[in-house]
Amino acid sequence: MSRAAGAAAGVYGRLLGHVRPFLAFLLASFAGFGIYAGSQVAFTELLGVTVDTVRAFAEGEDTSRARMLIPLAIVAAVAARGIGAFAGQYCLARVSHGVVHRLRLGLFEGLLTLPVGWLERSARGHLVSRLTYTAAQVTGAASKALEVIVREGLTVLALTGWMLWMNWRLTLVFLLVAPLIAVVVVYASRRFRRIARRIQSAMGDVTQRANEALAAHREVRIYGGEALERQRFADASARNMRQDVRMAATRATSTPLIQLLVATALALLVWLVLDPLFLAGMSGGDVVAFITAAGLLAKPIRQLSQVNAVVQRGLAAAEDVFSQFDLAPEVDAGSHAPERVSGDVVFEGVSFAYEAGPEVLHEVDLRVPAGHTVAIVGRSGSGKSTLASLLPRFHEPTAGTIRLDGRPLGDYSLAALRRQIAYVGQDAVLFDDTVARNIAFGALAEASPEAVREAARRAHALEFIDALPQGMDTRIGDDGVLLSGGQRQRIAI
């Protein structure tokens, strides 16, 4: 097995692990599509029986019983086909969308638990694109593509098995094109996968450019950066377009080629039908049904070849999703979880450097006794914010120790440690929710309305909050865009 095939098998295996909770629905979908495939065979058999019945009638035989049974069998076959298709599609939709839901939850969980340093190094646009666009590609592979693979795959197997039972010699001749089809599919699959990876990267760039332009729309306009941002977005979108066109070109080439191979095999089959050696023991109805079955194979084979592009995009997307799953979450080995700490903070020889950069902090010694207020003053870039970020363990010191109430920070569980800290960064961050829910956020969500008002009063925000249209229940927009800068800071405090 090649390395690429092994990697694809590994991705399939991991996806199947997420399918396990929906195994009952998956088996039910297989049963439904099995009924659908069986109805296709029934149609071809009924066609053969009809031809033989017409011949018998022309020869003066009594066909009254067949005249009653054949129409009833046709209605029954159509009903079975409809029931099988519904059961297969519905149950498979439960499986596929359930799997994608689990993947999205896993991705979002990673955004909440992965190390802060990794999140800061990652482009936000690419992270958002992975949650939206990339997950949607897995949806395509896990829903529509899987439906086509199961339904049409079972149809191909059912028709081929029936043809082998009818005349194995003719069927083997028809199957001579299978190796050639396999070669085309393997080549197209590799190319689809390569292009799909590029499309995902290009789509991440598109999202990143859009996010940056929206987040900095004031700076873009005040500094006349519209033309630059317009060009950067156009370049990212053009790269994505070129990869999409290459994907379409590969699909447009492989599908007609496979159809040509199937048509060639069908033509050879029709030519051989005239040879008595191959037709020994077959009635006229059998011959018609056999050729009809061979013709019916063209449609499922064509659909299977067309869905290959969707499958490869889904596998490439799954690889990207699993690459985030494989990252280790931030270290949380501490077990000390006090309800309340005194607040004695000590930095002992603390140094820190960001990845592949010079030291920002060098052997810092600092003690802040409980109950004291300390202002750290320094020029921009001197490490003040970095020093503060070490206390909630957003980053770990590269040297030295930080103690809280005499214990190293690593002894505390992250939840217990961060419960002791109120943090307002350089940029006030708010959520698209009400004023009250922004003040009582996260672990403070159960705070009483009185406690929320008291917090607002202490932050000198109560006066302007009461003047808002719905007071504490006023929604403040994305990142508090409906408030002034000072009001945003007050609510954050």
Account of the protein in words:
This protein has 493 residues and is mainly alpha-helical. Helices cover 68% and strands 5% of the residues. A 4-stranded antiparallel beta sheet has the order 2-1-3-4, covered by helices on one side. The chain is elongated and about 110 Å long.
What's the quick description here?
The chain has 493 residues and is mainly α.
Structural descriptors:
493 residues, mainly alpha
Number of strands: 4
Distance between the termini: 59 Å
Chain-averaged pLDDT: 79
Unreliable residue stretches: none
- Which structural class matches the secondary elements? mainly alpha
The value of Rg in angstroms is: 33 Å
Largest sheet: 4 strands, antiparallel
Strand order of the largest sheet: 2-1-3-4
SSE succession: HHHHHHHHHHHEEHEEHHHHH
- How many helix segments? 17
Q: What gross morphology would you assign?
A: elongated
Strand content: 5-15%
Helix content: 55-70%
Chart the SSEs and their pairings.
Layout: H1 3-19, H2 23-58, H3 64-113, H4 116-121, H5 124-166, H6 168-174, H7 178-215, H8 217-222, H9 226-273, H10 284-296, H11 298-325, E1 345-353, E2 359-368, H12 384-390, E3 399-404, E4 407-408, H13 414-419, H14 435-439, H15 449-458, H16 462-466, H17 485-492
Antiparallel strand pairs: 1-2, 1-3, 3-4
Helix pairs in contact: 1-11, 2-3, 2-5, 2-10, 3-5, 5-6, 5-7, 5-10, 5-11, 6-9, 7-9, 7-11, 9-10, 9-11
